[in-house]
Amino acid sequence: MTLEQIAYIAQIAGVLVVAATLIFLALQVRQGTDLLRSDARQTQLTNDQTGVYKFVEFPELGRILSQVETPSFEEKTKVIFWMIGQMRAREYEWLQYKSGAMDKESWESYRGVIYFVLGTERARALWGLTSGYFNTGFTAMVEEMIRDVPPIEYWDDLQAIK
Description:
Layout: H1 3-57, H2 60-66, H3 73-99, H4 104-111, H5 113-117, H6 121-130, H7 136-146, H8 154-160
Helix pairs in contact: 1-3, 3-4, 3-6
Protein backbone atom coordinates (compact mmCIF):
# COMPACT_ATOMS: atom_id res chain seq x y z
CA MET A 1 0.00 0.00 0.00
CA THR A 2 1.42 3.33 -1.03
CA LEU A 3 1.50 6.49 0.99
CA GLU A 4 -1.04 8.00 -1.41
CA GLN A 5 -3.50 5.15 -0.79
CA ILE A 6 -3.09 5.54 2.96
CA ALA A 7 -3.84 9.27 2.60
CA TYR A 8 -7.05 8.48 0.65
CA ILE A 9 -8.15 6.02 3.33
CA ALA A 10 -7.43 8.62 6.03
CA GLN A 11 -9.50 11.21 4.12
CA ILE A 12 -12.40 8.78 3.81
CA ALA A 13 -12.17 7.99 7.53
CA GLY A 14 -12.09 11.72 8.30
CA VAL A 15 -15.20 12.33 6.21
CA LEU A 16 -16.99 9.48 7.98
CA VAL A 17 -16.07 10.90 11.40
CA VAL A 18 -17.31 14.38 10.37
CA ALA A 19 -20.56 12.89 9.02
CA ALA A 20 -21.10 10.88 12.22
CA THR A 21 -20.44 14.01 14.30
CA LEU A 22 -22.97 16.01 12.27
CA ILE A 23 -25.58 13.28 12.67
CA PHE A 24 -24.94 13.21 16.42
CA LEU A 25 -25.25 17.01 16.64
CA ALA A 26 -28.48 16.96 14.63
CA LEU A 27 -29.93 14.43 17.07
CA GLN A 28 -28.86 16.58 20.02
CA VAL A 29 -30.49 19.67 18.50
CA ARG A 30 -33.69 17.72 17.90
CA GLN A 31 -33.73 16.50 21.50
CA GLY A 32 -33.14 20.06 22.70
CA THR A 33 -36.03 21.32 20.59
CA ASP A 34 -38.31 18.57 21.90
CA LEU A 35 -37.31 19.42 25.46
CA LEU A 36 -37.96 23.12 24.87
CA ARG A 37 -41.43 22.38 23.47
CA SER A 38 -42.19 20.07 26.35
CA ASP A 39 -41.13 22.78 28.79
CA ALA A 40 -43.36 25.32 27.03
CA ARG A 41 -46.34 22.93 27.24
CA GLN A 42 -45.73 22.35 30.95
CA THR A 43 -45.62 26.10 31.55
CA GLN A 44 -48.87 26.51 29.59
CA LEU A 45 -50.56 23.85 31.67
CA THR A 46 -49.36 25.42 34.91
CA ASN A 47 -50.56 28.86 33.80
CA ASP A 48 -53.97 27.53 32.81
CA GLN A 49 -54.43 25.60 36.03
CA THR A 50 -53.51 28.69 38.04
CA GLY A 51 -56.21 30.67 36.24
CA VAL A 52 -58.79 27.96 36.82
CA TYR A 53 -57.88 27.67 40.49
CA LYS A 54 -58.30 31.43 40.90
CA PHE A 55 -61.94 30.99 39.85
CA VAL A 56 -62.33 28.25 42.43
CA GLU A 57 -60.74 30.47 45.07
CA PHE A 58 -62.63 33.60 43.96
CA PRO A 59 -65.90 32.51 42.29
CA GLU A 60 -67.13 36.09 42.41
CA LEU A 61 -64.82 36.91 39.48
CA GLY A 62 -67.44 35.65 37.04
CA ARG A 63 -70.16 37.70 38.67
CA ILE A 64 -67.99 40.82 38.67
CA LEU A 65 -67.23 40.36 34.98
CA SER A 66 -70.86 39.88 33.99
CA GLN A 67 -73.08 41.77 36.43
CA VAL A 68 -75.09 44.75 35.22
CA GLU A 69 -74.25 46.85 38.29
CA THR A 70 -70.95 48.68 38.31
CA PRO A 71 -68.52 46.74 40.51
CA SER A 72 -66.73 48.41 43.40
CA PHE A 73 -63.17 49.63 42.98
CA GLU A 74 -61.93 46.60 44.95
CA GLU A 75 -63.90 44.21 42.73
CA LYS A 76 -62.56 45.84 39.57
CA THR A 77 -59.05 45.64 40.98
CA LYS A 78 -59.45 41.94 41.72
CA VAL A 79 -60.77 41.24 38.21
CA ILE A 80 -58.24 43.35 36.36
CA PHE A 81 -55.27 41.68 38.03
CA TRP A 82 -56.73 38.21 37.37
CA MET A 83 -57.17 39.29 33.77
CA ILE A 84 -53.61 40.65 33.53
CA GLY A 85 -52.32 37.30 34.79
CA GLN A 86 -54.34 35.39 32.23
CA MET A 87 -53.37 37.67 29.37
CA ARG A 88 -49.70 37.62 30.43
CA ALA A 89 -49.83 33.81 30.19
CA ARG A 90 -51.31 34.10 26.68
CA GLU A 91 -48.63 36.63 25.76
CA TYR A 92 -45.94 34.19 26.92
CA GLU A 93 -47.49 31.44 24.80
CA TRP A 94 -47.73 33.76 21.79
CA LEU A 95 -44.05 34.66 22.18
CA GLN A 96 -43.20 30.95 22.39
CA TYR A 97 -45.18 30.36 19.20
CA LYS A 98 -43.53 33.28 17.40
CA SER A 99 -40.05 32.05 18.39
CA GLY A 100 -40.78 28.53 17.13
CA ALA A 101 -40.81 26.91 20.57
CA MET A 102 -44.53 26.10 20.19
CA ASP A 103 -46.30 24.70 17.14
CA LYS A 104 -49.28 26.41 15.54
CA GLU A 105 -51.80 23.79 16.67
CA SER A 106 -50.79 24.16 20.33
CA TRP A 107 -50.85 27.95 20.13
CA GLU A 108 -54.30 27.98 18.54
CA SER A 109 -55.69 25.70 21.24
CA TYR A 110 -54.39 27.97 24.02
CA ARG A 111 -55.24 31.29 22.43
CA GLY A 112 -58.94 30.40 22.56
CA VAL A 113 -58.84 31.33 26.25
CA ILE A 114 -58.56 34.96 25.13
CA TYR A 115 -62.19 34.83 23.94
CA PHE A 116 -63.16 33.71 27.45
CA VAL A 117 -61.00 36.22 29.34
CA LEU A 118 -62.21 39.10 27.16
CA GLY A 119 -65.69 37.68 26.81
CA THR A 120 -67.63 40.53 28.41
CA GLU A 121 -67.89 44.23 27.65
CA ARG A 122 -66.45 44.96 31.08
CA ALA A 123 -63.43 42.71 30.46
CA ARG A 124 -62.82 44.40 27.12
CA ALA A 125 -62.96 47.82 28.77
CA LEU A 126 -60.46 46.68 31.39
CA TRP A 127 -58.25 45.26 28.63
CA GLY A 128 -58.28 48.71 27.07
CA LEU A 129 -56.76 50.06 30.29
CA THR A 130 -54.00 47.46 30.46
CA SER A 131 -53.16 46.47 26.88
CA GLY A 132 -50.45 49.14 26.67
CA TYR A 133 -48.36 47.14 29.14
CA PHE A 134 -48.15 44.14 26.80
CA ASN A 135 -46.06 43.38 23.73
CA THR A 136 -47.42 45.53 20.88
CA GLY A 137 -47.52 42.61 18.46
CA PHE A 138 -49.47 40.55 20.96
CA THR A 139 -51.87 43.42 21.61
CA ALA A 140 -52.46 43.87 17.87
CA MET A 141 -53.15 40.13 17.50
CA VAL A 142 -55.65 40.24 20.40
CA GLU A 143 -57.42 43.29 18.98
CA GLU A 144 -57.73 41.54 15.62
CA MET A 145 -59.08 38.40 17.30
CA ILE A 146 -61.87 40.13 19.20
CA ARG A 147 -62.68 42.95 16.76
CA ASP A 148 -65.95 41.57 15.37
CA VAL A 149 -66.60 38.90 17.99
CA PRO A 150 -69.65 39.52 20.19
CA PRO A 151 -69.43 39.02 23.96
CA ILE A 152 -69.89 35.45 25.16
CA GLU A 153 -73.05 34.26 26.89
CA TYR A 154 -71.14 31.96 29.24
CA TRP A 155 -71.97 33.71 32.50
CA ASP A 156 -75.67 34.07 31.69
CA ASP A 157 -75.80 30.44 30.59
CA LEU A 158 -74.05 29.35 33.79
CA GLN A 159 -76.47 31.37 35.91
CA ALA A 160 -79.46 29.84 34.09
CA ILE A 161 -78.47 26.22 34.81
CA LYS A 162 -80.66 24.81 37.56
